[in-house]
């Protein structure tokens, strides 16, 4: 305080009495109080919101661990999976939650949905926690929280995420040929992705159906696949179709070296000789 | 000359306002039609605006460095330079916020980053730090408004309050230093945590972002001061204050170049899918001109030689050239770092080692909106020089606003 007064004595231009009075009248304590109030006003809504939302780890631990198996031997690249997905999830024709690539050598196809990684990079980087991990392994999107920064698109090793660059208005050409939408359409400006048709899984379980076994509880792409190249099921259930397939055939996952732990397994095209052998055995 | 000077200011302002208005128009299109009007895509989701954001934050680093020099290291004579730097920092961070607002798909939810926390995300850290640091910068800038003669004459009481905030300058300098070091490095870490993109997935990026900010922040402060002094008598500089800063910038460049090349060369030791292709894009591909000329030759080597040789540095035009090169070099570095990982498109099959490449050129709307943000920066600085007397080394600045009369004399 001493310092202030000395300076004021030196400071010629502030000789205005009113100004001087005001100048002295701002105590440090008030300033600190104001700062504290400001800080509280910033932090309080966040704290209140945190409290009002149950944290993800408070969720009841699911007994299931969902996974998908895609058999490259059977996949013919017809795209029925993508179309059924577009209809059921009401995805714009300009976007795809499930993309299909033809292998460079030709002959085999690679169909890529969201990998629902065990250690998902997108979940780590989302600044607002709009994408999160469910205890049954599904990576979810909270479309009401997403701010559309697209950091998750930068982080996803599989380019599984698509952004709503414009509003999707008008009829969906995939509806009703490929099915009726199960979920509401997303607004412009948020990122979306494959959800393993989580609403079908949850609704199915509530009605006593088993995802992967009962069609109504199974992801639309798996149901739509005409060659049976896609399997879905519970990794915790030794009798599930995915576990049986993984036990029988060699499998791989995409960019496995990154340690993301994808939940989508691929069965590579099998050698013709080996297949003949298999057929002979059975 | 005098007559030309009379036209210079209005012409310059008109040019800036034209860019600003066209930028506002472009922003209007972006907000009404969505990001479809940009050339961004799901393969290249971050482009020009993110580059402007990263560059502005890097170039605004002079604010915390010079504040720390004055109030923590006690180099009091640099106080007038710190004032310029803080003002530039304030402009830079508001520019960053503007481009971010343009860039996010849901600008109406910008506050979500403060309300919903994901403490694992570098971008969350950046957002929090930038938000708080912008508040700190505002508190550092408000006394500048308070000391402006035209302001204190009309609202003496408010002016006195505003000037009083300056007493907390040392505290603000500490907070600013912490926040700045945190978010300057986190901006690098924003890319460095992306394991999906091997070319940027390395810890050195956080260090390099700080190092380049150490170089370019003070460089812009000196550049802006010198250029203003060349153009208008309202800005008065002392070379005795600026010269040591330029020399510091020169040595900081040496450190930066060493770090950068160690980092780059280490990446070439082995073949790694994605990383080696990214390196190729940078050194021989579409970004190679930007890299070799923009970043290395003009951005580092040339200014390093000029600023470290006292004979070359003493030549005003060479000195200015060096500073301009540094600023350009930082923008080139941020542009390259942002794009290089996105231009390499991964193939997903484990046996397939042939990544593909994509391209990105900003659309007209994107460019106009970006130019509008930059024009806002120039306009703010111009007005600051003219009305807030922010480049004036002859005015003594301690804690006291002693010489407002002197400044008023200069303004009249």
**How many strand segments of chain A?**
9
SSE pattern of chain A: HHHEHEEHEEHEEHHEHEH
Q: In terms of quaternary structure, what is this? A: heterodimer
Beta strand count of chain B: 2
Topology:
The complex is a heterodimer of chains A (282) and B (412).
Chain A: H1 2-10, H2 17-24, H3 28-52, E1 66-71, H4 80-88, E2 99-102, E3 109-112, H5 121-125, E4 131-133, E5 139-141, H6 151-155, E6 162-163, E7 191-192, H7 198-206, H8 220-224, E8 230-234, H9 241-248, E9 264-267, H10 272-281
Parallel strand pairs in A: 1-9
Antiparallel strand pairs in A: 1-8, 2-3, 4-5, 6-7
Chain B: H1 2-33, H2 48-59, H3 62-71, H4 79-103, H5 112-115, H6 122-147, H7 149-154, H8 156-164, H9 169-192, H10 204-231, H11 239-267, H12 275-283, H13 288-308, H14 310-313, H15 316-343, E1 344-345, E2 356-357, H16 364-388, H17 404-411
Antiparallel strand pairs in B: 1-2
């Amino acid at each position: 305080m001493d310092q202030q007064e000395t300076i004021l004595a030196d400071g010629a231009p502030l000789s205005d009495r009113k100004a001087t009075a005001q100048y002295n009248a701002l105590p440090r304590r008030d300033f600190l109080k104001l700062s504290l109030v400001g800080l509280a006003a910033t932090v309080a809504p966040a704290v209140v919101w945190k409290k009002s939302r149950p944290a993800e780890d408070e969720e009841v631990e699911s007994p299931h661990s969902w996974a998908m198996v895609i058999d490259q031997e059977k996949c013919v690249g017809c795209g029925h999976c993508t179309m059924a997905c577009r209809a059921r999830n009401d995805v714009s024709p300009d976007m795809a939650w499930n993309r299909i690539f033809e292998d460079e050598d030709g002959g085999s196809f690679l169909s890529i949905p969201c990998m629902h990684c065990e250690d998902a990079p997108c979940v780590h980087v989302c600044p607002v926690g709009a994408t999160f991990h469910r205890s049954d392994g599904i990576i979810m999107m909270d479309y009401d929280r997403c701010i559309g920064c697209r950091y998750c698109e930068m982080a996803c090793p599989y380019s599984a995420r698509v952004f709503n660059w414009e509003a999707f208005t008008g009829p969906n050409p995939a509806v009703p040929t490929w099915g009726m939408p199960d979920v509401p359409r997303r607004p412009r400006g948020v990122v979306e992705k494959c959800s393993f048709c989580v609403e079908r899984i949850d609704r199915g379980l509530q009605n006593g159906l088993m995802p992967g076994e009962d069609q109504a509880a199974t992801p639309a792409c798996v149901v739509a696949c005409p060659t049976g190249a896609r399997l879905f099921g519970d990794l915790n259930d030794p009798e599930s179709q995915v576990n049986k397939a993984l036990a029988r055939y060699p499998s791989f996952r995409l960019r496995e070296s990154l340690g993301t732990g994808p939940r989508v397994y691929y069965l590579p095209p099998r050698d013709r000789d080996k297949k003949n052998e298999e057929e002979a055995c059975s | 000359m005098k007559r030309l000077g009379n036209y210079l200011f209005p012409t310059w302002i008109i040019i800036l306002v034209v860019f600003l208005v066209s930028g506002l128009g472009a922003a209007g299109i972006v907000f009404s039609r969505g990001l479809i009007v940009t050339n961004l895509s799901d393969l290249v989701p971050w482009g020009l605006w993110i580059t402007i954001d990263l560059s502005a934050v890097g170039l605004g680093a002079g604010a915390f460095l010079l504040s720390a020099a004055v109030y923590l290291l006690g180099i009091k004579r640099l106080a007038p330079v710190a004032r310029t730097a803080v003002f530039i920092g304030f402009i830079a961070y508001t520019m960053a916020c503007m481009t971010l607002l343009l860039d996010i798909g849901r600008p109406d939810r910008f506050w979500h980053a403060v309300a919903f926390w994901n403490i694992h995300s570098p971008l969350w850290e950046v957002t929090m730090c930038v938000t708080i640091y912008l508040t700190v910068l505002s508190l550092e800038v408000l006394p500048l408004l308070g000391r402006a003669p035209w302001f204190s004459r009309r609202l003496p009481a408010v002016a006195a309050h505003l000037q009083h905030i300056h007493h907390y300058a040392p505290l603000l300098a500490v907070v600013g230093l912490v926040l700045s070091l945190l978010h300057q490095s986190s901006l690098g870490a924003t890319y460095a945590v992306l394991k999906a993109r091997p070319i940027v997935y390395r810890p050195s990026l956080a260090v390099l972002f700080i190092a380049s900010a150490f170089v370019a922040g003070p460089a812009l402060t000196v550049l802006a001061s010198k250029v203003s002094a060349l153009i208008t008598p309202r800005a008065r500089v002392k070379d005795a204050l600026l010269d040591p800063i330029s020399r510091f910038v020169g040595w900081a460049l040496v450190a930066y170049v060493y770090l950068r090349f160690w980092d780059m060369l280490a990446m070439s030791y082995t073949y790694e899918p994605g990383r080696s292709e990214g390196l190729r894009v940078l050194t021989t591909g579409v970004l190679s001109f930007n890299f070799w000329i923009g970043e290395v030759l003009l951005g580092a080597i040339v200014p390093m030689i000029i600023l470290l040789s006292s004979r070359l540095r003493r030549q005003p035009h060479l000195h200015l050239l060096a500073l301009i090169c540094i600023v350009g070099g930082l923008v080139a570095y941020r542009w390259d770092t942002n794009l290089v990982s996105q231009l390499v498109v991964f193939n997903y099959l484990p046996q397939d080692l042939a990544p593909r490449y994509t391209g990105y050129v900003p659309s007209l709307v994107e460019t106009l909106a970006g130019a509008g943000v930059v024009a806002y920066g120039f306009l703010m600085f111009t007005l600051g020089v003219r009305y807030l007397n922010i480049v004036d080394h002859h005015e003594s600045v301690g804690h006291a606003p002693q010489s407002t009369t002197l400044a008023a004399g200069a303004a009249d």
